[in-house]
Specification:
Number of domains: 1
Structural class: alpha/beta
Number of strands: 12
CATH class: Alpha Beta
CATH architecture: 4-Layer Sandwich
Number of helices: 3
Length: about 210
């Protein structure tokens, strides 16, 4: 699938979500593989079985990458959610296009600061954000915050509850990837009231809401 950002491509099926770019993307991520990278062309979200023991997630992701022909450093995520049901949301304004790809598993929701770790099984919301823009380091951190706020708002709108009975803020193993093409408009701030932040938030919120219909 070609996406409305030049050189950006997407494939998703029952095994994986694979987003790749003809040119390297600047990346910031909290992922199983590649969290140390500042640039990457490939982002892979691998589906695993419910109850996956997590003994060798890095090796399992590396094996999948080799299988699909990736021979360079990449960003890798894992989920037990149905990757064939990945949600793609696009937002555009006069300066920038944003693409969000999300897989949403909410069978074990948590409330940050309330849910006890010992009581929770793994469940995952993975969100990949790609902006056709140039972001400063501070803007990337803003983008993580904005993405998280939009995710949690969507969960509240869907009335997702944590074990204590109150609203859920996410799940115990959520991951985020912020990627940018480093061309076009330059942003030093990507909070929710900025033009780019608003686009990211709308796309993330729509992707989560659609996944939970």
């Amino acid at each position: 699938m070609n996406l409305p950002i030049l050189g950006l491509h997407l494939e998703y099926n029952a095994r994986l979500v694979h987003l790749w770019s003809d040119e390297p993307l600047a990346v910031l991520s909290s992922t199983v593989v590649g969290s140390e990278l500042t640039q990457a062309r490939h982002i892979v979200n691998r589906r695993v079985a419910r109850g996956y023991d997590g003994r060798s997630p890095r090796d399992d992701l590396l094996a999948l990458a080799r299988e699909i022909g990736i021979v360079e450093p990449f960003v890798g995520l894992m989920t037990a959610a149905k990757t064939e049901r990945a949600q793609v949301a696009v937002e555009r304004d006069a300066a920038t296009t944003v693409v969000v790809v999300a897989t949403v598993g909410v069978s074990h929701p948590t409330a940050s600061g309330i849910t006890e770790a010992a009581r929770v099984e793994a469940s995952t919301i993975n969100i990949i954000v790609v902006a056709d823009a140039c972001l400063t380091p501070a803007a990337r951190v803003n983008a993580v915050i904005t993405t998280t706020e939009a995710k949690t708002l969507a969960l509240i709108e869907r009335d997702l509850r944590a074990p204590h009975g109150g609203f859920a803020s996410g799940t115990g193993t959520d991951s985020i990837v912020i990627a940018s093409t480093e061309r076009g408009a330059r942003y030093e701030y990507v909070g929710p009231i900025s033009p780019l932040g608003a686009s990211i938030a709308r796309a993330v919120r729509r992707a989560i809401l659609n996944a939970m219909q």
